[in-house]
Amino acid sequence: MKVIMSGMSSSNGVVDPRVTSVLAKWQNSHSLKVTLEELRRLMMSKENMTLTQPPEGQCYSN
Prior knowledge:
Layout: H1 21-24, H2 32-43, H3 46-49
InterPro entries: UBQ-conjugating_enzyme/RWD
């Protein structure tokens, strides 16, 4: 699924680790749940909520 948000590459979907505190200060004790909750928080930010999203079902090509 393709998502457009600040701190994410529009060409391949890679998240810039400097954008989130969880990724910027990564520790082995961080769980996938914590990481996904942080990404969800970013997606719900006012800045990202106003961005136009790609059509449903669009994916990044490898």
